[in-house]
Write a structure and sequence with these properties.
It is a single chain. Helix content is about 80%, strand content about 0%. It has two helices and no strands. This is DUF3953 domain-containing protein. It comes from Paenibacillus barcinonensis. Keywords: Membrane, Transmembrane, Transmembrane helix.
Length: about 60
């Protein structure tokens, strides 16, 4: 059995990841929900917003961490 060593994660990185996940996960969830409700335009907008937040997050993490 292996354990994940989380001692290298700084508090700033943990908070940053947590904040982006609080934004990112609901956007994708709402996008999927809108697709099931046959509201394709709203679904695509939520998915596109989620993708944009993901790109911003990746850029932010590569610059600061």
């Amino acid at each position: 059995m292996t354990y994940v060593d989380t001692s290298d994660i700084s508090a700033q990185m943990f908070v940053t990841v947590l904040l982006f996940l609080i934004v990112l996960a609901p956007l994708f969830s709402l996008g999927i929900l809108r697709f099931f409700q046959s509201k394709k335009k709203a679904g695509f907008m939520y998915m596109l917003s989620g993708l944009l937040v993901y790109v911003v997050f990746q850029t932010f993490m590569s610059i600061f961490f």
